[in-house]
Amino acid sequence: MKILVIGADGYLGWPTAMRLSSKGHRVFCIDNFSKRKIELENGIKPLFKIETMQSRVNLWNKIKPKNKIKFYYGDLLNHRFIYQLLSKIKPEAIIHYGEQPSAPYSMAGREQAVFTQHNNIIGNLNLLFAIKKYCPSTHLIKLGTMGVYGTPNIDIEEGYLKIKHKNRSDTIQFPVKPHSYYHLSKAADSFNLSFASRVWGTRVTDLNQGVVYGTETKETILSEKFKTSFHYDHLFGTVINRFCLQAAIGKPLTVYGKGTQTRTFLNIEDTLNCIELAIKNPAKKGEFKVRNQFTEIFSIKQLAQKVLKASKKMGLKIKVKNLKNPRHEMTKHYYNPSNKSFLKLGLKPRLLNDDFLISEIKKIKRIKSNIDLDTIDPTVKWDQKEI
Fold first, then answer.
1. Rounded average pLDDT over 18-35
2. Coil, helix or strand for 385?
3. What's CA 68's distance to the chain center, in Å?
4. What share of the chain in percent tops pLDDT 90?
5. CA distance 6 to 101
6. Which of 348, 335, 369, 373 lies closest to 154 in space, CA to CA?
7. Rounded mean pLDDT of the chain?
8. 167: which DSSP letter?
9. Is 59 helix (H, G, I), strand (E, B) or coil?
10. If we measure between CA atoms, which residue out of 187, 202, 85, 63 comes closest to residue 139?
11. Any residues with CB less than 8 A from the CB of 18 and at least 6 apart, and which?
12. Catalytic annotation on 186?
């Protein structure tokens, strides 16, 4: 199968490209390197060096000459670029990671909010028009986020909600309550994707994904040059990465607020398996399929306790430090999202355990000289006066 991976230079894009190539697919990749530019402008970088996209592709093609990856530099905001590319390769499936992925960055000010909305929404629209014109039978798999739902006081279904109102019933897209301009852009994407499916017959699977952790896959461990990024900073870092890094250097785990806010999580290998399952079980013509992509649910406080437990096994004495929450979110809330669809398709989750956390902490300790302590604590506040 010919598959296009958009945002292939990113944390998940590169492992996805390698995984699909290793399975015998003809893989084409694009990226505009906007995330690397944001990192440079804000003085942040991953814990370990990430090779250039071209050097990674070149090495992969040398190691796997029968499963070569083809890379194109380009931007979805340039509609002529994506039109020309789709008219040329006519992919059977598209994996769309190509958006600005940071909620804190999107809340840093007017410029960052506008960039996030423009980059994500307009890029997605250009892609939809290109698919309609040049490859209308293509299956588009779009990576969204569980964050679009917010924390409603009802169970979160996978994409749709059956309602009754004044003796009438209907099925609607599940109501969303995004909590950043980044999440708002993802919600807008979903409505545009649904519209394209309904009006043009576009085949779409929208994957609302939880917080992904881990950097090692069957492919990334083949070479140091195949590593994907580990971010712990205040813009792109995840809470698991931050906790593991703080434990590795003997610093308190910084919990925002009381830590009762709840998130969904999954291992990077589960992400790749979900992508494969989505490809094998595509949306039909005119179908907008929504799947919630996660395997576990923890409060931030519960996650901190897991890291403390693993640290104790290593002989580390780590404490928890509560910081004022920079985000605008409920501290106590109901949260019960469904993730049945991937489980029914055969996903076998890799659950977070002590062995994984100990392994992560040990890896970080070996390269702790790379850590920039000044980039860890949050600098962006949701209610900041200066915008």
1. 98
2. coil
3. 25
4. 97
5. 13
6. 335
7. 97
8. T
9. helix
10. 202
11. 60, 69, 217, 219, 220, 226
12. yes
- What tokens were used for 251? 């610093």
User: What's the pLDDT at 331?
Assistant: 84
CB atoms within 10 A of CB 27: 28
- Domain of residue 158 covers 2-214+268-294
Pick the catalytic residue from 97, 134, 149, 182: 182
Number of domains in the chain: 1
Cα gap 267→48, rounded to integer Å: 19
Query: What mean pLDDT comes out for the span 241-252?
Result: 98
331 catalytic per annotation: no
**207: helix, coil or strand?**
strand
The per-residue DSSP string of 229-263 comes to: ----STTT--HHHHHHHHHHTTPPEEEETTS--EE
Does residue 346 belong to any structural domain of this protein? no
- Name every residue whose Cβ is closer than 8 Å to that of residue 159 and which is 6 or more positions away in sequence: 173, 174, 206, 208, 288, 289, 290, 291, 292
What is the structure's pLDDT at 387? Answer: 40
Distance, CA of 141 to CA of 300 (rounded, Å): 29
Question: How confident is the model over 249-253, as a mean pLDDT?
Answer: 98
DSSP annotation of 178 reads: -
Would residue 182 show up in a list of annotated catalytic residues for this protein? yes
- Mean pLDDT across 205-231: 98
Strand, helix or coil at 265?
strand
Q: Is residue 142 included in any domain, yes or no?
A: yes
CATH (domain of 274)? 3.40.50.720
pLDDT above 80 for 79: yes
Percent of the chain's residues with pLDDT above 70: 99
Query: Does residue 314 lie within any of the structural domains?
Result: no
Mean pLDDT on 36-47: 97
Of 35, 45, 142, 186, which residue is the catalytic one?
Answer: 186
Assigned domain for 135 exists: yes
Q: Please provide the size of the chain in residues.
A: 387
β-pair type (262-267, 211-213): parallel
Interhelix angle 110-117/181-200, nearest 10 degrees: 20
Active-site hit among 145, 217, 220, 262: 145
- Asked if 378 and 235 touch (Cβ cutoff 8 Å), the reply is no
Which residues, 6 or more positions from 65, have their beta carbon under 8 angstroms from its beta carbon? none
The three-class DSSP label of residue 201 is: coil
